[in-house]
Amino acid sequence: MIVILKPNTPEERITNLVHWLKDQGLGTHLSTGDFHTIIGLIGDTSRVDLDLLTTLDIVESAKRISDPYKLCNRKFHPEDTVVQIGDAKIGGGNFAMIAGPCSVETEEQIIGVAQAVKEAGATLLRGGAFKPRTSPYAFQGLGAEGIRLLLKAKEATGLPIVTELMNAADLPLFEEVDVIQIGARNMQNFELLKEMGKLRKPVLLKRGMASTMKEMLMSAEYIMSEGNSQVILCERGIRTFETATRNTLDLACVPLFHQLTHLPVVVDPSHATGISDLVPSMSYAAVAAGADGLMIEVHNDPTHALCDGAQSLTPDAFAAVAAKCQKIREVIG
Amino acid sequence: MIVILKPNTPEERITNLVHWLKDQGLGTHLSTGDFHTIIGLIGDTSRVDLDLLTTLDIVESAKRISDPYKLCNRKFHPEDTVVQIGDAKIGGGNFAMIAGPCSVETEEQIIGVAQAVKEAGATLLRGGAFKPRTSPYAFQGLGAEGIRLLLKAKEATGLPIVTELMNAADLPLFEEVDVIQIGARNMQNFELLKEMGKLRKPVLLKRGMASTMKEMLMSAEYIMSEGNSQVILCERGIRTFETATRNTLDLACVPLFHQLTHLPVVVDPSHATGISDLVPSMSYAAVAAGADGLMIEVHNDPTHALCDGAQSLTPDAFAAVAAKCQKIREVIG
Amino acid sequence: MIVILKPNTPEERITNLVHWLKDQGLGTHLSTGDFHTIIGLIGDTSRVDLDLLTTLDIVESAKRISDPYKLCNRKFHPEDTVVQIGDAKIGGGNFAMIAGPCSVETEEQIIGVAQAVKEAGATLLRGGAFKPRTSPYAFQGLGAEGIRLLLKAKEATGLPIVTELMNAADLPLFEEVDVIQIGARNMQNFELLKEMGKLRKPVLLKRGMASTMKEMLMSAEYIMSEGNSQVILCERGIRTFETATRNTLDLACVPLFHQLTHLPVVVDPSHATGISDLVPSMSYAAVAAGADGLMIEVHNDPTHALCDGAQSLTPDAFAAVAAKCQKIREVIG
Amino acid sequence: MIVILKPNTPEERITNLVHWLKDQGLGTHLSTGDFHTIIGLIGDTSRVDLDLLTTLDIVESAKRISDPYKLCNRKFHPEDTVVQIGDAKIGGGNFAMIAGPCSVETEEQIIGVAQAVKEAGATLLRGGAFKPRTSPYAFQGLGAEGIRLLLKAKEATGLPIVTELMNAADLPLFEEVDVIQIGARNMQNFELLKEMGKLRKPVLLKRGMASTMKEMLMSAEYIMSEGNSQVILCERGIRTFETATRNTLDLACVPLFHQLTHLPVVVDPSHATGISDLVPSMSYAAVAAGADGLMIEVHNDPTHALCDGAQSLTPDAFAAVAAKCQKIREVIG
């Protein structure tokens, strides 16, 4: 870490700061220029509060040189992490196709979708039982009953299941769930992340709407620092000024995450765009960008007035998307 | 709610949609123009999923006319909510000056600050015991011991205390805490909001970094719909492309919230800017914009090398700010 | 256009507004609900100022139903526009590979790059002669001399050239330039757009850093409404809170633009990311998303200390990217 | 400027880079740590392209220590700039109240408003003759005739006038205009800025919708580096995800600009919010934040159905706002 002091900082203040830094177990290296003095910090700076340093009146700016994330950092773990879920693998050249409905509704529905997406090439089944909703008056999901139905669909098809957890108190219900999803709104719910770290089960961590890539890595680090190394990162769009799509899908994070971390990266084009017509194109783009998996909404009931135009694809449309994604993967290599 | 259909939507699809809407207990009113058909929905549309409707392939767009928030809506409760906390009041013309250190460190420190800010005009004491930190390796606060020290400071000064809760499991520790703060990262932690709704204690709800004003009102509605009407809204800056300040303080939300809701609105200029030099100006601006209170970081220990330049004001500087704020309130009326 | 009035708007105010709208040559259709009155506007609403209407005190909100862009709207021109530039074509299934250095530096450099990128599959040569720079003290490009060198490279290779114009007064210098680029900072320089409309030459219009897709279409409309229909849209990233990349590449605009407009859409992954390592992945993603072309920085001088790590690719790296893009295009179909 | 190299950068590459930097006339100072080598640059680094350096493959990051803006920098010119316009002054403790309609419509209108706002305390008259409009089909202002009418209003009231220029070719029409406004969309129209630099007339420079404060200072520097030091900065809101207001007014820029630059800073609450109800509160907030002036839309014709609810205040409402602003200024001191 480098701390750049303001011009004309009194000698005494510099000495005080250096002492304070040394008290925290850090070595320091002073470099005095014509205008600025620069303090280089040596040692484990991960506990140093960058924000606090920056707000000191004698500090012009401070800058980390080494990354504050360790366990998820590719520098220290050059090999790709491969997360194994039943027969499915994600990462290290293994691609996961996660598909299913937004919400679990009925046994017939979820088993029907599960069979259809399995047929079409899905390797995991997704479906919401506990749904985060902006409004307290909106349908909040089937809850425990939804989990039960998902497990029935797993039993019927053999597909491992991914579903969202919002409350650590619900963990007992998730015992047979294969992958626990932490939603965008909880990406910095640090207490929940710590609980995830105590599990020995894969966690799919969605990017927060206003979260930088580095913050997302720090959230993965929360889980890993508690002992759970099976973390899957999921890009699902960030919030910007553009309103033509629900969020702005930030695909550059795929190759950048692959540089910074060894964790697998999947992309959710359904939530990112909120427009089913755009899901195929953005799925192809995500695969071409190097994603280790996709998470796509698929719905199987075209006879319902509401659903036949929703953001979900039909199983047939999904099958076509999955086939083309496979071909793009072959080109990308 | 108004649903605008795409041009040339087949009659049959319109009929299906109307039936589906009626099944949800809504009346409908069709208006057929040259190009577009518009469906007006009559009845309680708060349970209708606007996002889902919008993504239907026959829907051009959908638009709420009535607000989805009810309990916090000024239309239905024209009178200002006044939150009473010990001797302090917030809202309805009552101004709260909440001051204290970022983190509780020692008994001496917190009692010292508490006495100093009380002297300078503070009506509530703030201080962090449980600290949300981006990094798992950063200091996470004193926890239970921090709460204990805050309560000592309350005992010593009579100031009611405000402190952040991150985990519902910690609630027993907060029994004597006067106001529970829900931080920006948990503004859409709906499970935690529901727990807050079960309390009979004021909750200070901070705006999420990527949250719109309407979403913040929906989060307040989560708390209120569970029975707790003592909610205080707190603007603390939103995340934008500007990096010169830590966040961008959105002061227009103060008068806008006063139009939309009867809840009191306080402003936190310390976290919003991250620069102590800007705190006085932004405090004055917040008061001039009509804020019902301020939440300001104050630190009392100018002998520590680290602290004398931090984003906190000294008690003396705070006293000067508080005095000027009072004068501006007199002008604003 | 639909105008939703506030509850309890006095009859007289409604009548006044309807008269004012009629004075502007619009038909109106009133629909009176339990709470709200809705005015539907019939006729050419493209001249109506939506912002002004929205700010009227009796108006709850107003919403366009028909698109304000006409000439670039796919609804009215279902066929793809194909822009022909020498032997190159863009749009309607024709792909353009635009490559070259950020800035024109010397005759040797630009001819060298031109030959190398032609060899590697480029169909157009790019290079900056007039450079928009944040700082007045930064190198502003070779100007007229840069144009002269680009024309030499065109002569040597037969590649048509694309280069940026910042000032209409420089137009005489651009007579032999094949495609005029309007940069992101000038996307809403309406006076310059009008000048572009008077030309009979293709214009490559880059998206503004804070511009929505709809605003970009309106800027294209400025050019087209003056008579020039040869407009190429170029996505180059938008400004968001994320700082890991220079901008956030918004690839969802590719399929969405293809729905909304018949104009071709190219993508510039070099400027969007600012990181040369990410350019290949984002090029593949753009092609997979359906882009009609790419605009990639290529530099040919690996012996210069400065350049061998810059955001430009080498010709060899570019050739590999171009080949893989071609294969992805075959998969996408 | 400091350049931090990646770990394990080969000696030879470092030597190359140092040579290249020296070729540009810069001194260098190498500091070799355990992991990173840091190069400190000595001399005039304002011409160094930070973006280019950052994208070199051996560079971890680069950071300016000295500001790239010189002429507008308070460090080098500690005294406030006072811009004198007729009898009005802005900056250095002098407050300007700029008021008038959005667009000039008729002689009667503009003279009427001018008289009313002068009466109410305005010191300058604003009014649009050339209007930047997103749509080519929207009313583009009265143009030359609008300028003529503004000058009539100036003659009638003695108020100096402020109006927007969009095209340097129109400059002859602006000879008697007192202050030329450069709009948000042209803040980085560098060619236009250079033309403004050749004038000896005050320029009011509005902040671009996606422009950082530092970029705005660089745009002011463009004007000043051509010889015109009479620049007034104008905050008018930035573009964020929040849609409840038209833009997000970033008032923290007022005190921050006052630290960074000696130029006066005015605030436009009308365009920032787009909601007339919020203009009074945001005017008070801007004054409390230390603004050197306000720019407020005022319209005088309450008999027109359209106008009596628009984002403009009436002259009476404006008079009340102006009076309260004056009182807040007295408190702020």
- Identify the biggest protein-protein contact and residues per side: A-B, 58 and 58 residues
**Which value, in Å, is the CA radius of gyration of chain A?**
23 Å
Can you count the beta strands of chain A?
Answer: 14
Percent of sequence in beta strands of chain A? 15-25%
Polypeptide structure, described:
The structure is a homotetramer of 333-residue chains. Chain A is of the alpha/beta class and 333 residues long. Chain A contains ten helices and 14 strands. Chain A has helices at 11-23, 50-55, 107-119, 144-157, 190-198, 213-225, 253-260, 269-273, 279-288, 315-332, and strands at 2-5, 27-32, 37-42, 59-63, 83-85, 88-90, 96-100, 124-126, 161-164, 179-182, 203-206, 231-235, 265-267, 293-297. An eight-stranded parallel β-barrel of chain A has the order 7-8-9-10-11-12-13-14, surrounded by five helices. In chain A, β11, α6 (213-225) and β12 (231-235) form a beta-alpha-beta unit. The longest helix of chain A has 18 residues, at 315-332. The radius of gyration of chain A is 23 Å and the shape is elongated. Chain A starts with a strand and ends with a helix. The interface between A and B is large, with 58 and 58 residues.
